[in-house]
Amino acid sequence: MIDMNRTKRRAAAIVAMTFSAVVLSGCDGAVDAESGSSAEYSGPAIRIEKQGSFAVGGRVLGDPNTSSLHCDHGVVEYQIPAERRAVNLLMWHSASAGAWQNRWDGGDGFQSIFAYRGFPVYIWDGPRVGRANWGCAATNYEPGEGRDQSNFVAWRFGTAYPNWFAGVQFPKDDPWAWNQAMRARYQEFDTIENAQLESDAAAVLADQIGPTVALTNSAGGLRALLTAMKSDKIVGIVAYENVGYVYPQGEGPGTPPGPFGPIEVPLEQFQKLTRIPMQMVWGDNTDKSDRYRPTVEDSRRWVELVNKHGGKAQLLMLADEGLTGNTHIPFADMNNVSVADLLSEFLHDHGLDARASETVR
After folding, report:
1. What is the mean pLDDT of each run of 10 residues along the chain (361 residues)?
2. 180 three-class SS
3. Range 50-137+146-349 classified under CATH 3.40.50.2000
4. Between vectors from CA 84 to CA 80 and to CA 90, what angle results, nearest 5°?
5. 32: number of Cβ within 10 Å
6. Sign of CA dihedral 282, 285, 287, 288
7. N or C: which terminus of the chain carries fewer CB neighbours within 10 A?
8. Which of these, 337, 327, 361, 358, lies nearest to 27 by C-alpha position?
9. Which residues, at least 6 apart from 111, have a Cβ–Cβ distance to it below 8 Å?
10. Distance CA 191, CA 252 (A)
11. Where are the domains of the chain?
12. How far is CA 57 from each of CA 8, 126, 292, rounded to the nearest angstrom?
């Protein structure tokens, strides 16, 4: 039987995709390998009502009157377009905020695409990473040669450097794009303790800015799940290639906790995740990756668990929607406008794209 509502939605998505191709005209403009500058402007002017950044959350060590340190806060950069929509998009990276700001070749990233579409966009650096790296505890950094090649595999450009997957949505012949990608990394501090720390600060942010859909990548998804249990202002989660999950006590996979969990919580707390729509999104070639093949199955089982408890979770394989060659970071891939159209469809289906008449800070 044909789902006529879905058929209509898909038709609308095609129209939106066509519109995006016009609105983002120049998005495929060449990037100069030396300067990195785009050959042409990638879109029309965006009417921005307000933009800026601020710190949120954190602690103060010592005596504020004599000797102190403000630390363990997050930092968020935001753009609020005119005639904005009511729900914010919080873009939460695992590697670098830059992945949300630009496509691999320098074209428009999700930050610009969704500002064009009227959403207030917030790009998040959690405590101890990026612009929020002044922590309340000592940290160590050790440079490691070979991490570039590890990125190649971890981001699923191919099974081993430099053997690219056929049709991969990365401009593999563009040295500027490769240089930018390999520099798009922060220290991530992947521990459960740090995930809780980041979610504490993000919950303060959500309570401050109002209804928010968290868009996450990789380990950012675990942090957003924790945040949604701490703030009822998280009204949806779209997790691109999530690698960590929260379970009700006694219903987890039974494996020892690692950098990405699993984390078990009381059922009452877990049920807070069933009140919001969630979508777990996966790119291509996961079946060819020893790292991601089991992770996709973890994602599938977790979605089933959430829905068993009355939730509204969905597993979305981009290949099933006709998008192929996508990497671990599909929102930065060359077909990211099409990926964005699927996100717009999700937001519309769940009533998360209405316009707002008031202004938020």
Report:
1. 45 40 37 36 78 98 97 97 96 89 95 97 95 92 94 96 97 96 90 95 98 97 98 98 97 93 97 98 96 96 98 98 98 98 98 75 39
2. helix
3. no
4. 55
5. 11
6. negative
7. N
8. 337
9. 79, 91, 100, 101, 121, 123
10. 18
11. 50-137+146-349
12. 43, 10, 34
- Residue indicated by tokens 């954190």: 58
Q: Which tokens sit at 37?
A: 């500058």
Query: Which are the contacts of 209, defined by CB distance < 8 A and separation ≥ 6?
Result: 78, 88, 120, 122, 233, 360, 361
User: Residue 356: what pLDDT?
Assistant: 85
Dihedral Cα 190, 195, 198, 203, nearest 10 deg = 160
Residue 75 and residue 55: Cα distance in Å, rounded? 4
- How far are the Cα atoms of 171, 238, 355 from residue 346, in angstroms, in the given order? 28, 9, 16
**Cis amide bond preceding 262, omega within 30:** yes
pLDDT at 272: 98
> Which residue carries 């020893």 as its tokens?
290
- For residue 251, give both structure tokens: 């219903």
pLDDT at 43: 64
Q: For the whole prediction, is pTM greater than 0.85?
A: yes
User: Rounded to an integer, what distance in angstroms lies between the CA atom of residue 58 and that of residue 198?
Assistant: 9
Between the two ends of the chain, the Cα-to-Cα distance in Å is 47
Going by C-alpha positions, the residue among 296, 281, 285 that lies closest to residue 166 is 285
